[in-house]
């Protein structure tokens, strides 16, 4: 092998090594993934799927109206994920609720009609949940992903189903 070819091969391998090293650094999550969102325990592995690498995580709970509780997850100051618990009137279908969330364009429904999901969001109907503060209403959960590199239909389907079931088992539905 000529000296030029050896030098070119070494340079190419060094470049590949740098690229691999950089992509590994990009994936560093220097923060702890939350164990709960809006007071509801969550599967950290499912949540982690939608969170980008970064140094600092903040989770803010907001209650913009009495019928809605939101948790916004920011990574290094940027919105990454938002989940909510929303009381809708009984006449409103899950399709109506899904239409109210922009991250649910091109959403698919599960066979049982309890979940709508896309790569960037999901909505779930919380079965048999009643609240004296919200008579005549049905509780829905919603999730929206804001990082375009962290999308996935299968992951969202699992997450929204898991989160909805956790909400059903929480104090919200007593």
Describe the structure.
It contains four helices and nine strands, in the order αββαβββαββββα. The chain is an alpha+beta fold and 174 residues long. The strands form two sheets. A seven-stranded antiparallel sheet has the order 3-4-5-9-8-7-6. β3 (57-65) and β4 (68-75) form a beta hairpin. It is globular. The termini are far apart. The relative contact order is 0.15.
What is the overall number of helices? 4
Q: Tell me how many strands there are.
A: 9
In what order do the strands lie side by side in the largest sheet?
3-4-5-9-8-7-6
Major sheet size, sense and barrel closure: 7 strands, antiparallel
- Rg, alpha carbons: 21 Å
The pLDDT mean sits at 85
Structural class: alpha+beta
- Please provide the ordered H/E string of secondary-structure elements: HEEHEEEHEEEEH
Instruction: Give the DSSP E fraction (strand runs of 2 or more residues).
Output: 25-35%
Shape: globular
Distance between the termini: 76 Å
Task: Detail the poorly predicted runs.
Answer: 2-26
* Residues in helix, %: 25-40%
Tell me briefly what this model is:
With 174 residues, the chain is an alpha+beta fold. It has helices at residues 3-26, 44-48, 94-99, 153-168; strands spanning 36-37, 40-41, 57-65, 68-75, 78-89, 108-109, 115-117, 121-125, 137-145.
């Amino acid at each position: 092998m000529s000296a030029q070819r050896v030098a070119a091969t070494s340079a190419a391998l060094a470049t590949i090594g740098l690229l691999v090293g950089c992509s590994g650094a990009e994936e560093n999550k220097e923060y702890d993934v939350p164990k709960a969102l809006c007071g509801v325990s969550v599967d950290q592995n499912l949540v982690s799927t939608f969170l980008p690498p970064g140094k600092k995580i903040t989770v803010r709970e907001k209650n913009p109206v009495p019928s809605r509780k939101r948790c916004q997850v920011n990574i290094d100051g940027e919105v990454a994920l938002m989940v909510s618990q929303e009381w809708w009137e009984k006449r409103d279908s899950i399709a109506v609720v899904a239409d109210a969330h922009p991250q649910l364009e091109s959403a698919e429904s599960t066979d049982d009609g309890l979940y709508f999901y896309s790569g960037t969001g999901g909505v779930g109907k919380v079965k048999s949940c009643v609240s004296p503060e919200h008579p005549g209403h049905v509780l829905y959960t919603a999730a929206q992903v804001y990082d375009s590199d962290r999308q996935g239909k299968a992951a969202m389907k699992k997450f929204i189903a898991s989160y909805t079931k956790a909400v059903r088992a929480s104090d919200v539905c007593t």
